[in-house]
Amino acid sequence: MASAALGLGAGAIAPSVQANSTEIAQAAPAEVQRVLSELEAAASDRNLDATMAFYSESFSSDTGFDYAQLRQTLETLWQQYPDITYDIELLSWQADGPGRYRLETRTTVTGTQTRPDRTLTLTADITSRQRLDEAGQIAYQEILSETSRLVTGTNPPTLQVQLPATLTPGQTYSFDTIVVEPLEGRSLMGVAVEEGVTATDFFEPRPVVFDLLSSGGLYKTGTAPAEPDSRWVSTVVIREDGMVVETRRVRVE
Question: Which residues does residue 217 pair with via DSSP β-bridges, in sequence order?
Fold first, then answer.
């Protein structure tokens, strides 16, 4: 999943002040509160023009999304999930000059997609840094963490995923997915997929080959890229009564 689209409105850097999110939001400048509140409402209404008005036309991100790519991606995403909603929680804020702010936010996303043969339910949790300019628009966004989950079926498997959030360049890592429920004679199929975190990767289809899982989970070993980067790592598990696709972002730094 593309975090620039799923996590729109997420942002910034953590200040030294310790407080809960409600206290932080109440103490934030009125302009910051207004931007996040109105952005959340516009995105949850799937109002593309109103949503993009909160983004600078020179918008950039760590995932390579610019203004035009973000707009196109949101339009496609909202067509697929016509009831998608956003909840934006302000975690921290810091003044960055007259009328400019750095923010850190947590965005939760929910939506459903109805197909002739199934209904897909999407949930996502994204923490991001972002920079607001003097016009109250988002000029830059960096994703700090991201987890998204897509489920379908009458009783989709419950997964426990073990994956590092950050890696060093070239580091070898383990990616383990455990199905919590006992097999009880049922068959499991699954696959692990690693992808780049770029605008071109968001909706790019990729053929995958599923393996029969006899041990109740997926156990893979990977190697981080040799240079600093971000990767989407997904696990797909299918059972006769449901399917789960869980995607997490791994930062290589």
Answer: 178
List all residues 6 or more positions away from 37 whose beta carbon is below 8 Å from its beta carbon.
none
d(CA 174, CA 232): 14
Contacts with 218 (C-beta within 8 Å, 6 or more apart), sequence order:
175, 176, 177, 190, 191, 192, 235, 237
- Reported as a pLDDT band with limits 50, 70 and 90, residue 231 is confident
CB 133 within 8 A of CB 116: no
What number of H helices and E strands is found in the chain? Answer: 5, 13
Give the residue-averaged pLDDT of 81-94.
95
User: CA–CA separation, 143 vs 197, rounded Å?
Assistant: 10
Q: Which residues of 74-90 are buried (b: 16+ CB within 10 A; e: fewer)?
A: beebbeebeebebebbb
CA dist 3 and 200 (Å) reads: 13
Query: For residues 107 and 150, what is the distance between their CA atoms, to the nearest angstrom?
Result: 17
The pTM is what? 0.85
Cα torsion 50, 52, 58, 60: sign: positive
Report residue 193 as tokens.
């997929």
Q: Give the strand pairing for 119-132 and 229-239.
A: unpaired
